[in-house]
Amino acid sequence: MKLLNTLIKYRLWIGLVLLVLAIFVHREAGFWPSFILYLLAVIAIVGHFLFGPMRLIQTAMEQGDMAEAKKIVDSIKFPGLLIKPIRSVYYTLKGNLAMVDQDYESAEKLMKKSLSLGGGALTKQAEGPNKLQLGMLSMQKGDIKQAESYIRQAIRAGLPDSENNAAAYLQLCSIMMNKREFRAAKEYFRKAKSFKPTTPQIVDQIKQIEKYITRMPG
Predict the structure, then answer these.
(1) Which of 19, 28, 76, 176 could form a disulfide with 185 if both were Cys (CB 3.0 to 4.6 A apart)?
(2) Going by C-beta distance under 8 Å and a sequence separation of 6 or more, which residues neighbour residue 13?
(3) Nearest CA-CA partner of 168 in 183, 148, 187, 140
(4) What superfamily in CATH does domain 75-160 come from?
């Protein structure tokens, strides 16, 4: 794992070194002895621009090192060269970082840009989390109707883990409480708890809602 991350981090420089070696061998011994070096150089250089360091960004974010994640994101100078599914993930991660910085306007634009790319397994995998984030952004803007629409779409598209699912159902619970649809609010609250989230923020939110949801009619 560590070796793979190192190869991804220095892939461009490794490719350039291989290219220089290939040219040297080509001049000294001819094309065929240098062919494998040319091939490896092309794979490394093209891979750098087509696939980018997405794995490194995700690793940094999973470790909670947002400064490192932002540094790696900013190192991508030509996102337009990334293949479409990877480009979608790039905009998703960039949107997540904007959320961390509380730059909600940029986060919304980036999430929508990711969704607009469409197609591909990776893009499909990012659809649910993107729509959940857009739903939460709509909640912050006070657009409850749009928030509910995005969150329901997120659940239908599929969310990657228990934490995201719990967050989605808690948001629906809050929306139903605001709409005074108490029976639905209780059902969504039960669903949120069933995922047994461990994220402190979500656990705290469950505890806060639990204090008064049992008193609701329905």
Answers:
(1) 176
(2) none
(3) 148
(4) Tetratricopeptide repeat domain (1.25.40.10)
Please state, in angstroms and rounded to a whole number, the distance separating the CA atoms of residues 26 and 32.
Answer: 8
Digit-coded pLDDT (tens) for 127-153: 898 999 999 999 988 999 999 999 999
The pair of structure tokens assigned to 118 is: 């469409």
Residue pair 44/14 in contact by the 8 Å Cβ criterion: yes
Written as six digits, the tokens of 170 are 């808690």
Q: What's the Cα-to-Cα distance from 215 to each of 72, 174, 183, 202, 212, rounded to whole Å?
A: 49, 15, 12, 21, 5
**Alpha-carbon span 66 to 99, nearest angstrom:** 11
Q: What residue ranges do the domains of the chain occupy?
A: 75-160, 161-213
User: Which has the closest alpha carbon to 129: 147, 111, 105, 116?
Assistant: 111
85-139 per-position pLDDT tens digit: 899 889 988 998 898 888 999 999 999 999 888 756 656 677 898 999 999 999 9
What whole-number distance in Å separates Cα of residue 214 and Cα of residue 88? 42
> Token pair for residue 46?
């093209």
Q: What is the pTM of this model?
A: 0.79
pLDDT above 70 covers a percentage of the chain that reads 96
Q: Are 113 and 91 in contact (CB under 8 A)?
A: yes
